[in-house]
Design brief:
Elements: E1 7-11, E2 31-37, H1 40-49, E3 58-64, E4 67-68, E5 74-75, E6 83-89, H2 99-118, E7 122-125, E8 129-132, E9 135-147, E10 150-160, H3 177-181, H4 187-206, H5 211-218, E11 226-231, E12 234-243, E13 249-252, E14 256-259, E15 265-267
Parallel strand pairs: 1-9, 2-3
Antiparallel strand pairs: 3-6, 4-5, 6-10, 7-8, 8-9, 9-10, 11-12, 11-15, 12-13, 13-14
Helix pairs in contact: 2-4, 2-5
Amino acid sequence: MLLSFLVRTIFVKNSNLLSHPSYNGRIGEPFIELFTIDSTNNYAMARAHEGLAKHGATWFAHHQTAGKGQRNKSWATEAGQNITMSCVMEPGGPNITRPFLLVAATALACYDFFNDYCKGDVSIKWPNDIYWRDRKAGGILIENIYRANEWQFAVAGMGLNINQESFPAHLPNPVSLKQVTGRHYELIALAKELCERLTHRYAQFASNNPVLMEDYNHVLYKLDETVRLKKDNIVFQTTIQGVTALGQLITQDAIERQFEFGEVEWLL
């Protein structure tokens, strides 16, 4: 299963980290291939802590042996078949209320990329899973580093199913780009295309462009549809209305409700 939303904040005292560049920096430069690694996020986070990463640095793994998913779950992918990469970004400033906008920007970059090849039926399932129809094609994991109140680094790990055609039986609904289109793809070329998409969406994030949340809500999975959710031991039906800039899911039934990530479980 692909990565899902997680934002982990790490406070550091190391003052030897690189200062953040302008927001015009391209993501995917440098683009570094790793043949086997436990986790691209672990690797990128370590480089950031060591002062060896800058905005835009990207690590792509041909084989990831210990991928990380939401709430400390593990994630596995078939070697050499999918996009598994992590990008370093340097938001800068004390804007600790804005992490979800970066999640939205990264999810939209993955959506833009996948939708280009599928030409429809692609959506973002709150908070950041990429869906084709009712099947999961990808997701992201973002980990943050703060120094005092400064947002020093964000490491965005992205996983997209590209050429894989068989998945473990316990996964309920995976799908790959090849299964959708019938075509086989060159992974490095596609990964660099995804970096271009992320560069564009990151610029919107950096400039506080309101189109970011407008676009996110426009492609939200099950928007205006009634779904079944579970909170604690209670299952209920409610209609998806949208997501706030702080990342809360808004739904409507007898009353309007707002949910934080992890507060409710989807029942499909």
